[in-house]
Amino acid sequence: MAKRRPRRNGQASPSPADPYPSAAGLGAQSQRQQRVGEMLRRALSEILMRGETHDPELGRHSITVTEVRASADLRQATVYVTPLGGREEDEALEALARNRGALRKLVSRAVTLKFAPELRFRLDESFDRMDETRRLLDQERVRRDLESDAGE
């Protein structure tokens, strides 16, 4: 176990092995991470909308950037995307992965950060999960159970 050095006010400082002891490591993001993620989302959305990359394959896909999650040190960003209509998802992700370096460079010009984050592209499946949840809640058996629980 790493030693903790006492601070001037008597509190222990985080160990070098755990520089981010907040809830951010558990899935929740800090305000800073959220703010940077939103800036990156807007910048990437504009870059893709204007077709600033020189890859015709990427240009033929209409891609929506739904969310960007920045790591605690802001050096990595996971970009959640959805191709228009949910078609050709694999081709769109491959085109984004191929253009990762160019997109990173364009983002670094659009957003003022100390480091341009490494971009990782993932398919946003939250809409599919939402549809599945709605489908389950619309089932007669589930509605009956919910109504009986509400009556008690």
Structure commentary:
With 152 residues, the protein is of the alpha+beta class. The chain is built from six helices and three strands, in the order ααββααβαα. It has helices at residues 31-50, 56-59, 89-98, 100-110, 126-137, 140-151, and strands spanning 63-70, 76-83, 118-123. Strands 1-2-3 form a three-stranded mixed β-sheet. The longest helix is centred in the N-terminal third of the chain and has 20 residues, at 31-50. The relative contact order is 0.12.
Supply the key terms:
single chain, 152 residues, alpha+beta, three-stranded mixed beta sheet, 6 helices, 45% helix
Distance between the termini: 51 Å
Helical content stands at: 40-55%
Largest sheet: 3 strands, mixed
- Secondary-structure-based class equals alpha+beta
Oligomer: single chain
Spans of at least 5 consecutive residues with low confidence: 7-26
Task: Give a concise summary.
By secondary structure, this protein is of the alpha+beta class. It has helices at residues 31-50, 56-59, 89-98, 100-110, 126-137, 140-151, and strands at 63-70, 76-83, 118-123.
Write the layout of secondary structure elements.
Elements: H1 31-50, H2 56-59, E1 63-70, E2 76-83, H3 89-98, H4 100-110, E3 118-123, H5 126-137, H6 140-151
Parallel strand pairs: 2-3
Antiparallel strand pairs: 1-2
Helix pairs in contact: 1-4
